[in-house]
């Protein structure tokens, strides 16, 4: 079954070890699989969950390489023909051999991914989640590839389709028939290190990156169509995207929704949330629903410091920005020795916050950002070229993702519904790394410029986490609407019920 994400969805990154966790958190979506049997998926569906199966586009595990020898050659190659190692994956524990990128343009690796999609969807999953969707295109960004024969031939065809006199002059050829970009690049940089150092100055580099990113997005779309064929009906298609990185936008038009690890700068407490706000704003700008989590480095900090209240802040921030924060049920932590460590959040701490989300879906669903975080105008509709991604970046930079502020460390996010209903999210970000708590704010004055809604409000209702709703007065002070929250512990949503 195909469905997108609702603003009040409660999303699990992966299946929980204990089925009771879904009930405790009020879960509605399991974003990615790992267990694809029909019995297991049916149990999840019986709990009302939308379930995603998963395919991994980065590499083939060792047991698959052993079972499919043709995969050993289907790897991303640098300018000298050597396989490109994946720097964030530890070498094999037995052979010490590095994990290497599979090439998404190599027929053998493409066939392998398609077999995995068939496995992932055979149990009746509602959607397909594509993990590491860039695949070998990630190597094109900073790691020196891929220059295998299939990528070289594919890039020649890509250039031929876009052929013009300027492109021909840049390539120093009269035709792109039999054009070999690997040989061309070697005249500038014969080694991988030289290529990485000089790539930005090498002609056609931007086009080569566009080609690789486009191939990755086409691969995702192809896998999504296959998943639909296996399911014999519409399915959701998702991928993990690293916003606000512009390179990850190429795949967005193909997706139903996305997930993403976002840097929350945990060691800075409530002062390091700018990247998260920018990522959420970009997702809304792209009109792609996001279910986010923090990075393994962030989770390592939370785990070592017992910083559960900081995670509560992250949850509130995501929903206030129009996105979702995945339930912190079992989150991977970065470990210096490469071993697996996990943060397993306490349902007693976090489930009440998700209950607040579910209870107040009427203040979340179908709203969009107003004011400083609103969607810029005149945006590209696709992002397959460097110029289009640059245009997106410039449009976002022209209206920086700087929320309104109130009091000491409080962020304010005005949102509006199509029918004119207004909801003002007020989030207390004054988390102290030392005390490991969020200091409550009292008699907090919140000021909303009238230019955001072009209305003068006269009253409203505050819905606060951990408190009963209450009425409040809105004063019109010149060109500003002002209200006071007697106390703000974490998160309040204020809705204006009438106006003059």
Structure description:
α1 links the parallel β1 and β2. α4 packs parallel to α10 (205-231) and α6 crosses α10. Helix content is 33%, strand content 21%. The mean pLDDT is 93. The longest helix is centred in the middle third of the chain and has 27 residues, at 205-231. With 500 residues, it is an alpha/beta fold. The protein contains 15 helices and 22 strands. Strands 1-2-3-4-5-6-7-8 form an eight-stranded parallel β-sheet. The radius of gyration is 24 Å and the shape is globular.
Put the structure in a nutshell:
This protein has helices at residues 20-25, 38-46, 62-67, 107-121, 137-142, 149-161, 165-171, 181-186, 192-198, 205-231, 274-285, 296-305, 308-320, 347-359, 386-398; strands spanning 11-12, 29-30, 50-56, 127-131, 236-240, 257-262, 290-294, 324-325, 331-333, 341-343, 367-369, 404-406, 410-417, 422-428, 431-432, 437-438, 441-449, 457-464, 470-473, 475-477, 480-488, 491-499. The protein has 500 residues and is an alpha/beta fold.
Question: What keywords describe this structure?
Answer:
single chain; 500 residues; alpha/beta; TIM Barrel; Immunoglobulin-like; 8-stranded parallel sheet; 7-stranded antiparallel sheet; 15 helices; 22 strands
């Amino acid at each position: 079954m195909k469905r997108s994400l609702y603003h009040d969805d409660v999303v699990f990154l992966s299946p929980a070890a204990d089925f009771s966790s879904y009930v405790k958190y009020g879960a509605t979506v399991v974003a990615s699989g790992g267990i694809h049997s029909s019995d297991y998926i049916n149990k999840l569906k019986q709990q009302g969950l939308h379930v995603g199966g998963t395919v991994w586009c980065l590499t083939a595990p060792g047991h698959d390489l052993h079972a499919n020898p043709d995969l050993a050659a289907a790897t991303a190659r640098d300018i000298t023909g050597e396989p490109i190692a994946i720097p964030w994956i530890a070498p094999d524990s037995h052979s010490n051999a590095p994990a290497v990128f599979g090439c998404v343009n190599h027929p053998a690796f493409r066939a392998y991914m398609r077999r995995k999609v068939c496995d992932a969807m055979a149990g009746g999953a509602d959607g397909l989640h594509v993990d590491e969707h860039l695949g070998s295109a990630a190597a094109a960004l900073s790691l020196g590839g891929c220059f295998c024969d299939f990528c070289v031939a594919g890039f020649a065809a890509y250039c031929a389709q876009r052929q013009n006199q300027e492109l021909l002059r840049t390539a120093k050829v009269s035709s792109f028939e039999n054009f070999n970009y690997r040989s061309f690049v070697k005249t500038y940089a014969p080694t991988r290190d030289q290529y990485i150092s000089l790539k930005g100055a090498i002609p056609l580099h931007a086009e080569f990156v566009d080609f690789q990113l486009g191939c990755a997005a086409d691969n995702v779309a192809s896998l999504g169509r296959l998943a639909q064929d296996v399911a014999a009906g519409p399915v959701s298609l998702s991928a993990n995207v690293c916003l606000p990185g512009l390179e990850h936008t190429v795949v967005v038009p193909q997706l139903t929704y996305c997930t993403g690890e976002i840097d929350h700068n945990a060691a800075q407490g409530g002062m390091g949330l700018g990247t998260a706000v920018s990522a959420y704003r970009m997702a809304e700008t792209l009109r792609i629903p996001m279910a986010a989590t923090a990075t393994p480095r962030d989770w390592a900090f939370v785990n070592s410091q017992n910083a559960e209240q900081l995670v509560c802040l992250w949850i509130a921030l995501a929903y206030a920005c129009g996105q979702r924060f995945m339930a912190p049920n079992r989150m991977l932590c970065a470990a210096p020795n490469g071993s697996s460590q996990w943060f397993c959040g306490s349902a007693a701490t976090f489930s009440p916050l998700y209950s607040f989300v579910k209870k107040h879906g009427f203040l979340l669903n179908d709203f969009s950002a107003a004011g400083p975080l609103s969607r810029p105008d005149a945006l590209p509709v696709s992002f397959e070229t460097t110029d289009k991604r640059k245009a997106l970046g410039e449009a976002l930079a022209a209206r920086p993702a700087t929320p309104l502020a109130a009091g000491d460390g409080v962020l304010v996010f005005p949102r509006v519904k199509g029918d004119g209903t207004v909801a003002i999210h007020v989030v207390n970000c004054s988390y102290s790394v030392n005390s490991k708590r969020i200091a409550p704010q009292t008699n907090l004055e919140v000021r909303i410029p009238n230019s955001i809604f072009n209305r003068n409000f006269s009253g409203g209702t505050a819905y606060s986490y951990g408190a009963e709703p209450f009425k409040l007065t809105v004063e019109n002070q010149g060109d500003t609407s002002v209200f006071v929250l007697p106390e703000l512990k974490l998160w309040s949503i204020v809705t204006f019920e009438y106006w003059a």
